[in-house]
Specification:
Blueprint (H helix, E strand, L loop, with lengths): L10 E3 L20 H14 L4 E2 L12 H8 L2 E4 L6 E5 L1 H4 L2 H15 L6 E5 L2 H13 L2 E7 L7 E8 L2 E8 L8 E9 L3 H12 L3 E10 L5 H4 L5 E6 L1
Parallel strand pairs: 5-6, 5-9, 9-10, 10-11
Antiparallel strand pairs: 1-4, 2-11, 3-4, 6-8, 7-8
Length: about 240
């Protein structure tokens, strides 16, 4: 059993009054061509270490840019959902914007393009949307990590603590080969319980977790620390 606090979906329990710190991308406009845009992003990733947070530590915000600010602005806050006192980070408004969605996916893909990824693991459910796109562009397969009882064949499972109970994640027992280089993808890093539980599933099957990619990271919840030495990438930080 994982002894970490977790979160369900993209739910964030109101933190102790944080100061917003934003991680954002500076990209060339799409009209200049995708190759130019990819090269600008590659150079940005190489020279801006807070985006790729080795060991889960990222102390400084990424310098803001127009496209990054637009991505952040498209994340909709829904108060008191799914219950009173919870602030829900809704990414459907970003996913519905073609340019923003493309920018976000390109950013995550370029962060891992040369990492030798062999399979992408997406965490239910928004991790399926992001992870499927990443797997396609990286030219690798996709494996779902699902809630208990959702997968049809033999599975392994892990239980982990939530702030309001316990949850169980599962993956097919034959989904990952020993030694396979794995990228885990989810939409949001808060307390880190879900991501850490997913990583433990992959590691139990013998997979090597090369990185964990998030669209959003909420500072002040201890998520980066919960991941331990596993490296992660977050495009947008609040």
């Amino acid at each position: 059993m994982v002894s970490a606090h977790g979160r369900r979906g993209s739910v964030a329990i109101a933190p102790p009054p944080p100061v917003a710190r934003v991680g954002s991308l500076v990209l060339a406009p799409r009209t200049r061509g995708s190759s130019v845009r990819r090269e600008r992003l590659r150079l940005f990733l190489l020279t801006t270490s807070p985006l790729v947070a080795s060991g889960g530590v990222s102390d400084d915000p990424i310098p803001p840019g127009p496209l990054g600010e637009r991505l952040r602005a498209l994340i909709r806050d829904v108060p008191d959902f799914p219950r009173e006192g919870v602030l829900f980070k809704d990414i459907t408004t970003l996913l519905g914007d073609a340019e923003a969605f493309r920018t976000a996916i390109d950013g995550l893909v370029d962060a891992y393009r040369d990492a030798g990824i062999e399979v992408v693991v997406g965490v239910e459910s928004r991790g399926f949307v992001l992870g499927g796109a990443l797997a396609y562009l990286l030219g690798v397969g996709f494996v779902p990590v699902r809630k208990q009882g959702k997968l049809p064949a033999q599975t392994i499972s892990v239980a982990y603590a939530l702030e309001y109970g316990e949850a169980v994640l599962e993956v097919h027992a034959d989904a990952i080969r020993p030694g396979q280089r794995v990228l885990i993808v989810d939409d949001l890093l808060a307390t880190g319980g879900t991501a850490r539980a997913s990583a433990e599933l992959i590691e139990r099957l013998g997979g090597q977790v090369v990185g964990i990619a998030f669209l959003i990271e909420l500072a002040g919840f201890g998520g980066a620390e919960a991941l331990g030495e596993r490296s992660h990438v977050s495009l947008i930080r609040f």
